[in-house]
Amino acid sequence: MAFLWLESTFHNSQPLNKKQDCLVTFVHWKLLSNGYLVLHSKQGLNVEDVERKEVLPENWNSEAVYDLQYLKNGEQHLLKAVIVDGELVFTVMRVKDEKVATLVLDTDRWVGENFQSFIEAYKEKVTLDNFVQKELVDPFLEKVSSKPSGTSTKFIIDEKQSTPTGAPSHPSARQILNF
């Protein structure tokens, strides 16, 4: 599996002050790889007037909660990540319909002790990549269906479903992150 531009994204995200910064950088890279661009403004956001970039905004990792805004195909998405008991809870919400996707990652499972070195930062990159794709990117992909028009597919999410960490799911993302 190719991880094109992951190393550049890692170095452009410096300084990485804690392991969680590495996970946010990985998710950011994955969103970029899927056509998202990060928005560089939080004040009075008018999506049409905000600069869209690949590089994370200045001071992106200076708060206790990671709070980033992205744009893909003209649609705004919000990414929030919160540290909860050694895990990082990621939530992506598409603004237009408030569709939400959540992923909980155990920081120590995915990030090495020498997290400031790209070579040693990530453990099991392929598996991590698959989890991020499946849980945070795929839910927002348009499904192509061979069903006749007028029918719809419903997706049911089991709240008690186990996460990639093997632990039970946490409270809903809306409760934790106040969307």
TrEMBL record:
Residue segments, region Disordered: 160-179
Pfam families referenced in this protein's UniProt entry, alphabetically: PI31_Prot_N (PF11566)
Domain PI31 proteasome regulator N-terminal: 13-133
GO molecular function annotations of the record: endopeptidase inhibitor activity; proteasome binding
InterPro entries: PI31-like (IPR045128), PI31_Prot_N (IPR021625)
Keywords: Proteasome
UniProt keyword Transport present: no
Gene3D superfamilies (UniProt xref): 3.40.1000.30
A GO BP entry: ubiquitin-dependent protein catabolic process
GO cellular component: proteasome complex
Family statement: Belongs to the proteasome inhibitor PI31 family.
Protein name in the entry: Proteasome inhibitor PI31 subunit
Organism of this sequence: Daphnia pulex (Water flea)
